[in-house]
Amino acid sequence: MAPKAFLIAVIAAILAIAAPASAAYDYTVGDDAGWKLGVNYTRWAEGKEFRVGDKLLFKYNQDAHSVAKVNASDFQQCVASNASNVLTSGNDEITLSTPGTKWYICSIADHCTKGMKLVITVSTAQAPAPAPTPRTMPLPAPPSSPGTPATMPWPRAPSFPQTPATSAAGDASPLQSYMWILGALAAFKVILVPLAMFRQEFPLVC
């Protein structure tokens, strides 16, 4: 289940990256006003980025206007020399299939000279973002050859902290000195008590 969810997430990420590069836009010429007299189409085209794959939608009254695809010379003279390039459906859709400058006029009467003309520049489609470079993992170190066994270091003996040697009797603790005194008193008592008793029983005659 987890690998399937991961695959779906990867595909969604790829589509999200590729979507801005491949998305095409539909431009309604003149926006809500459409294709008619009294609209400044030069101003309408300003600030717009037309790319290959985008579409121009000409919406107009087919009984009063037309859309003619012309070249630069016909655009300047407001004439449509090629009648096969004149559209009259009232709802024309033109796909911008090639880059470059495109010219459009209304071929009815003097509508072109009155401002019903449009020139745009089409650029190539936006290049897709480069795929991320895969990260390379470092190669493992080659194993040692069979003829050369790996040497293992000998274990080191544990080291213990050195304790200072006991000092002389003069450095003995007070408790040890006290024990020595008690021992001496006990020995003195053992010797003196029998001696005193002996002197009481057998007094010395001078």
Strands of the biggest beta sheet: in what spatial order? Answer: 2-8-7-4-5
Q: In the CATH hierarchy, what is the superfamily of the domain at 14-123?
A: Cupredoxins -  blue copper proteins
* Gross CATH architecture of the domain at 14-123: Sandwich
What do the pLDDT scores average to? 78
State the major sheet: 5 strands, mixed
Relative strand content: 15-25%
* SSE ordering: HEHEEEHEEEEH
**Oligomeric state of shown chains:** single chain
CATH class of the domain at 14-123: Mainly Beta
Helix content: 25-40%
Total helix count? 4
- The shape is rod-shaped
Low-confidence stretches: 165-172
Number of strands: 8
- Rg value: 55 Å
List keywords for this structure.
206 residues; Immunoglobulin-like; three-stranded mixed beta sheet; 29% helix; disulfide bond; transmembrane helix; Lamin-like protein; electron transfer activity; transport
Explain this structure to me?
This protein is an alpha/beta fold and 206 residues long. Among the domains are: 110 residues, Immunoglobulin-like, CATH 2.60.40; 29 residues. Helices cover 29% and strands 17% of the residues. The strands form two sheets. It has a five-stranded mixed beta sheet with strand order 2-8-7-4-5. A three-stranded mixed beta sheet has the order 1-3-6, with no helix packed on it. The termini are far apart.
